[in-house]
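User: structure tokens for this one?
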Amino acid sequence: MPMSFDTQILRGKPVAESTYARLEARIDKLRKRDQVPGLAVVLVGDDPASKIYVGTKTRTFQRLDLLTETFHLPARAKQVEVEGVINRLNADPRFHGILVQMPLSDHLKSQAILERVAPLKDVDGLHPDNLGRLLAGRPRFIPCTPQGILEILEYYEISPQGKRAVIIGRSTLVGKPMMALLASKWERGNATVTACHTGTRDLAEQTRQAELLIVASGQPGLITGAMVSEGAVVIDVGTNRVPDNSEKGYHVEGDVATEEMLGRVQAITPVPGGVGPMTVAMLVSNTVLAAEISVGAV
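Assistant:
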């Protein structure tokens, strides 16, 4: 007989606010050294979703009285122009962190642009230097979304240790660093990790074995109730804009059919309001860390 769970909703906002509270003392110490953590955002083009994300980040930094500035380039900006902006920001002591808002226009070489960011200002953790340190077990900047997921699990006292973790998605932004973090031998990892992707045969066979399921596929409603084991913990990373007849013309859906999970799984992150707030919180945290590194405080 199927079990019924009082499914816990893992909301990101209280975790984010807890993070900001913990950062206050570190920010105060930096201010006493005449350092205000500063973030430069490089935005290319006018993608509506990207502009919303940048706006959210900007408001958060402003609310915390931290420095932030967006450098907005036209959609047809040339590679040399974008890299030129990053070169100037690398040399600007006001900015401890640089964030290149993804995705970039198709005509740009995204990897070359990400690698142009100085590793000590790479608060998104996507430079090969930082990714290599993560894989070696000596992380400097952990990519914001995977780091936010770990914070959510810790806040709600859900340990990955010894669990069968299944990750759907193998992007450098989420999937690959998530694999490394959960498989590593430390208190926030030590899980047995399976990575699934577009080449995985019989995806449901894999997901039904997961005690911890992390979904970052970019496909709305990909994971249904029948694909998840009873009592699993589900982390939905998806933020998909789905067209509808509303005034906005769209609504946001995750990669998981949330309604089908209620009563079936132990816990799940909502979309929106789950992982999203933590991605921003970890960007703030990494920027504070970058400021501390710049003055030799760590």
